[in-house]
Amino acid sequence: MNTTKNIVFKRKSPITKTIFGIFIFAVGFISVLAGGFYGFIVCGVSIFFLYKDGSEIDLEIQKYRTFIEVLGFRFGKWDDLPEIEYVSVFSTTESVAVRALSAEAIVKNDIIVLNLFYNGNHRIKAYSTTDKEDAFKIAKQIADILKIDILDATEAESKWI
């Protein structure tokens, strides 16, 4: 059985934001090649459109972190993973605000979230997906490695697995 020792959750960026960031970076890079100092500033501005945030849990070394990822490089401070009591799998709705000039729209998506609970009600968001089967697969791997129980809160009646 292939067990995951490193769990990464990255918030998805809208494709238009990514394309806009790549375009701005390209304009800045071309400006730098042409000898313009301001191209560095434009490239720096593009990072605001290209970064992703998320969390990472390394089960092998028992550490976790929240991070910002820019161009494939992750930045964040590792903390010790506390004594996890159980992993919870539940359904929720994620809202994302999409803005363009003076217009704004709220896009809602149904997602499945895995939280690791410790010290009663403290939690660490471990993973998020739209696929229920994938969520339970990851939850089982975490539960097997940490020797903890799984709480299925995807239905109206929660149950222990």
What does this structure look like?
With 161 residues, this protein is of the alpha+beta class. The protein folds into two domains: 81 residues, no CATH class; 73 residues, no CATH class. The protein is 29% helix and 44% strand. Strands 1, 2, 3, 4 and 5 form a five-stranded antiparallel sheet that branches. It starts with 5 loop residues before the first strand and ends with a strand. The mean pLDDT is 86.
Instruction: Give the mean pLDDT.
Output: 86
What is the element string, with H for helices and E for strands?
EHHEEEEEEEHEE
Helix content: 25-40%
Shape: elongated
The value of Rg in angstroms is: 19 Å
Number of helices: 3
SSE class: alpha+beta
Sheet with the most strands?
A: 5 strands, antiparallel
Strand content: 35-45%
Termini separation (Å)?
Answer: 20 Å
Indicate the topology.
Elements: E1 6-10, H1 15-33, H2 38-50, E2 52-58, E3 63-70, E4 73-75, E5 79-80, E6 86-100, E7 103-118, E8 122-129, H3 132-146, E9 149-153, E10 159-160
Parallel strand pairs: 6-9
Antiparallel strand pairs: 1-2, 2-3, 3-4, 3-5, 6-7, 7-8, 9-10
Which descriptors would you attach to this protein?
161 residues; alpha+beta; 2 domains; five-stranded antiparallel β-sheet; five-stranded mixed β-sheet; 10 strands
Q: Could you give a short description of this structure?
A:
By secondary structure, the protein is an alpha+beta fold.
